[in-house]
From TrEMBL:
HAMAP family: LeuA_type1. This is 2-isopropylmalate synthase. SUPFAM superfamilies: 2-isopropylmalate synthase LeuA, allosteric (dimerisation) domain, Aldolase. Residues 87-349 form the Pyruvate carboxyltransferase domain. CDD domains: DRE_TIM_IPMS (cd07940). One of its GO terms (molecular function) is 2-isopropylmalate synthase activity. Its EC number is 2.3.3.13. Mn(2+) binds at D96, H284, H286, N320. InterPro entries: 2-IPM_HCS-like, 2-isopropylmalate_synth_dimer, AIPM/Hcit_synth_CS, Aldolase_TIM, LeuA/HCS_post-cat, LeuA_allosteric_dom_sf, LeuA_bact_synth, LeuA_carph_isopro_dom. Its cofactor is Mn(2+). Catalyzes the condensation of the acetyl group of acetyl-CoA with 3-methyl-2-oxobutanoate (2-ketoisovalerate) to form 3-carboxy-3-hydroxy-4-methylpentanoate (2-isopropylmalate). It catalyses: 3-methyl-2-oxobutanoate + acetyl-CoA + H2O = (2S)-2-isopropylmalate + CoA + H(+).
Length: 597
């Protein structure tokens, strides 16, 4: 059993307070803040130091019980979820996050994300909205079959068919939840649902009762709770709890609240529901005013013990509350919240990168926790401070959120079995031998160009490979690009559509423009390019470039991805991948109109 150094240090009031106390207690043998900081990064401390802490605690008149600081056994902790000290992390990247334009994911991609979320310790995975389409049902069902530690959840409107579909989809999961919702604001009830308030309550109660036929774990959400009447909310919540709901979610669907108001509203609701002590209260905040995380934390202070959030803050419109920011705020400011989550924070950056690769949504460099600049100290004064005492300017370490976990994965000499094992480790299971062989060939090719292959490289490679496996899709074959100062760039590209080889040539204002024009001259998709971005997968000039292309045609929006050490090849691949999704992919029903929290 390992000691939880963070909590141990917090017991003494934080790093600075501890260093000071040690100095007062025994000036000769005191530990510096830098040393204490190191214990935290390493997750251990030398025995001699531990003895000093024990002596210090005794001198302070509050002897140390080391058992209280042991790292909690994960499985034990999961079952001992108490309302009082534990915040349940409910991830909705694959449901709410997927509603971001063009972020729709295939079943295989969702399975990869689900595996990583489970590894990270997410309590509840909202895998989708089973009744939305046969594809959604299949994805939720596939995830329910493979996830064993986390609870697998499906969203459902408060109508019988939705709830039954959700129930069937999650049925294989050892831990399953149905999340049903209905709008409760006057404007939604009158204009969208065209129902009287009592009818809305009846529908909600009926939905919860049907859900109970499938699982004991039933969540109810009041859509547009932020604009709903408080008395009505209390009435409907009391009724659904009576009917068996075990979690009550209060969403800010339109991202309209501010923290002080949200705190007060949530406190009032919890107080006004007589049987409210029987359930876990939850919140789900949108980021339209940039306050999703702040509002979620205010709700936690007001008593909610479940937060619904997404990786990288993905979600409808301006997005949802970001999982990584909430988890790190609860951890770093443990002194304020005094609450735990079950998240292994060292998995945060790998999961964030995976979601970015799969959805084609790059992470802004100044994004908290997972942005490339989040731990970079540019200013000379800061750098000096950080080198002397990391605590000076860093409130958390890069290692604690997984920045250094991109361990060297494989090298040029790694064999097919090692490659397969590593993929399984990363939650990637290729469906056929053919797919595995193709991916392995790509890996060998990449290993020739790039000495070190990291986890991120494998994710990018597999995403790229899976995109081109569909036999009906557009596939990249080869290209020749000529650019010279003073000359117009020209692209000669060979690709295939449904297996038929095509040759295309075009000039453009730059090589990327020439590539897109060449492909379009044959494909004639009629789509407009919305976003084109290039990111380095790992550090160094020999890194793979990961490109993302967003195309729109009518109301369909798709993101295509490509990865290669040659960014122009990656660019052509991304464009072809977007075309494949546009032409052959499943159309997602639009979120609007079907109601959503
Ligand atoms: Zn939402």
């Amino acid at each position: 059993m390992q000691l939880d150094i963070d909590r141990l240090v917090a017991y003494f009031g934080g790093v600075n307070a501890l260093a000071e106390a040690l100095k007062q207690h025994d000036p000769e043998n005191a530990a510096t803040t830098a040393a204490i900081y190191k214990w935290r990064t390493r997750g251990s401390l030398p025995l001699a130091q531990l003895q000093k802490l024990t002596a210090l605690a005794e001198a302070q008149g509050r002897p140390l019980d080391l058992n209280a600081f042991l790292q909690k056994n994960e499985s034990l902790e999961r079952t001992e979820m108490t309302q009082t000290n534990r915040v349940i992390i409910f991830d909705t990247t694959m449901r709410d996050g997927e509603q971001s334009p063009g972020a729709s994911m295939t079943k295989e991609e969702k399975i990869r994300i689900a595996r990583q979320l489970e590894k990270m310790g997410v309590d509840v995975i909202e895998a989708g909205f089973a009744a939305a389409s046969p594809g959604d049902f299949e994805s939720v069902n596939a995830i329910a079959k493979i996830i064993t530690k986390s609870t697998v959840c499906s969203l459902a409107r408060a109508v019988e068919n939705d709830v039954r579909k959700a129930g069937e989809a999650v049925s294989p999961a050892p831990k399953k939840r149905i999340h049903t919702f209905i709008a409760t604001s006057p404007i939604h009830m009158e204009h969208k649902l065209k129902m009287k308030p009592q009818q809305v309550i009846d529908a909600a109660v009926k939905a919860v009762k049907i859900a109970k036929e499938y699982t004991d774990d039933v969540e109810f959400s009041a859509e547009d709770a932020v604009r709903s009447d408080l008395d009505f909310l209390a009435k409907i919540f009391t009724a659904v709890i009576e009917a068996g709901a075990t979690t009550i979610n209060i969403p800010d669907t339109v991202g309209y609240s501010i923290p002080s108001v949200w705190y007060e509203r949530i406190s009032n609701i919890i107080k006004s529901v007589p049987n409210g002590d029987k359930v876990v209260w939850s919140t789900h905040c949108h980021n339209d005013l940039g306050m999703a995380v702040a509002n979620s934390l205010a709700a936690v202070q007001a008593g909610v013990r479940q937060v619904e959030c997404t990786i990288n803050g993905l979600g409808e419109r301006a997005g949802n509350a970001s999982l990584e920011e909430i988890v790190m705020a609860l951890k770093v400011r443990h002194d304020l919240f005094g609450l735990e989550t079950g998240i292994d924070t060292t998995q945060i950056v790998p999961v964030s990168k995976l979601v970015s690769t799969i959805t084609g949504y790059p992470i802004q460099p100044n994004k908290a926790v997972v942005g490339a600049n989040a731990f970079a100290h540019e200013s000379g004064i800061h750098q000096d401070g950080v080198l002397k005492h990391p605590e000076t300017y860093e409130i958390m370490t890069a290692e604690s959120v997984g920045w250094s976990t991109n361990r060297l994965t494989l090298g040029k000499l790694s064999g097919r079995n090692a490659f397969k094992t590593k993929l399984a480790d990363l939650g990637i299971e290729l469906e056929s031998e053919e797919a595995l062989n193709a991916a392995f060939a790509r890996f060998k090719e990449l290993a020739d160009k790039k000495r070190e292959i990291f986890d991120e490289d494998l994710h990018a490679l597999v995403s790229d490979e899976m995109g081109s496996l569909n036999t009906e899709s557009y596939k990249f074959i080869s290209q020749k690009i000529s650019t010279e100062t003073g000359e117009e760039p020209r692209a000669n590209i060979v690709f295939s559509i449904r297996g038929e080889e095509k040759h295309a040539t075009a000039t453009g204002s730059g090589p990327v423009d020439a590539i897109f024009k060449a492909i379009e001259s044959v494909a004639q998709s009629g789509a407009t390019l919305q976003i084109y971005s290039v990111n380095a997968v790992t550090q160094g000039t020999e890194s793979q470039g990961e490109t993302s292309v967003r195309l729109q045609r009518g109301d369909r929006v798709v993101n295509g991805q490509g990865a290669d050490t040659d960014v122009l090849v990656a660019t052509a691949k991304a464009y072809l991948s977007a075309l494949s999704k546009l032409e052959f992919g499943q159309a997602k029903p639009k979120a609007q109109g079907r109601g959503m929290i």
